[in-house]
Description:
65% of the residues lie in helices and 4% in strands. It is mainly α.
Amino acid sequence: MNKFKTLKDHVYDYIADQILVGNLRPEEKINENVICEELSISRTPVREALIQLASEGILDNVPRKGFVVKSLSEEEATDLYVIIGDLDGLAARLACPNLEEKDFKDMQFYIDSMTLTIESKNYEMYLTQQKIFHQVYIDKCGNNALIEELAKIKNKFLKKSYLDDPEGEISRTLTATNAEHQEILELFKEYKADEVSKYLAEIHWAPENAHFDLMSLNEK
């Protein structure tokens, strides 16, 4: 779904990316002046983007302090996983009859790319490839309201900048998750709409997996 991006949208993406790569940390105050200087824009689109991020639960608007990056509790993460699983499963079920061979090839490409990012420990790139993988079928669901709602909820998990992984736990977890991506693709290829919907809701987005999103926050 192509959409014209306003200045506010560009600022939104910029702040989201800064959170994703760990340049903005949980509880850190957003410096509006720095953003204005970095992007060479006025304060108005910056304020609009901050207000939107706060309305989506990514930032907190703290009285007498301003906008800060919001922390996510384990309970909140678990609750969000339940919602994402149901909505992602619905999107998959709606998209299934609309998927074509090109979509399957694209998803396989992203799965293979994620394997390479795990092997090279480029976990930030893994996040990017994972997002695009899911977006292939989400964009084919034919329901713009569902697409937008999923994007807003998933953005609450932006705050993931991976720690050093000396014990290999992150690598093992991502390898297992990528195996799930392969299973999702195989179900799509067989056009098993109900099965892929159930797999996403009950396995891929199982609430007990929510702790990993918290474990992977950069707390250095």
